[in-house]
Amino acid sequence: YGPSDIERLRFIRRARELGFSLEEVQALLDLAPRPQKNCDRVQSIAEQHLANIRAKRADLERMENALAKLIEQCGTTSNDRCPVLESLAGEG
Questions:
Q1: Spatial CA neighbour of 32 closest among 15, 48, 16, 57
Q2: Which of 2, 30, 52, 77 counts the most CB atoms within 10 A of its CB?
Q3: 10 Å Cβ neighbour count for 28?
Q4: d(CA 31, CA 41)
Q5: For the whole model, what pTM was predicted?
Q6: DSSP 10-70
Q7: CA 66, 69, 73: angle at the middle one, nearest 5?
Q8: How confident is the model over 14-35, as pLDDT tens digits?
Q9: Are the C-beta atoms of residues 24 and 45 closer than 8 Å to each other?
């Protein structure tokens, strides 16, 4: 591999570490040769990605809270009931 190949691979690795999709990475790579001209487009891609991350985090927090509440109920009900299984079955 030549220096430009190594640089490109590093770019891809860093972008993937930040969670950019392969499609987003390709778009960023296409914009990279002229960063001054394309900065607004790069910013737009990054802002959308950040919004997606924040939405996913909010979803994960809701799931965490719901599951934690179900787990807290374990052992507090009769032995023939399981709050987690009842919730998954739509009974809770």
A1: 15
A2: 52
A3: 19
A4: 8
A5: 0.76
A6: HHHHHHHHTT--HHHHHHHHHHTTSHHHHHHHHHHHHHHHHHHHHHHHHHHHHHHHHHHHH
A7: 140
A8: 999 999 999 999 999 999 989 8
A9: yes
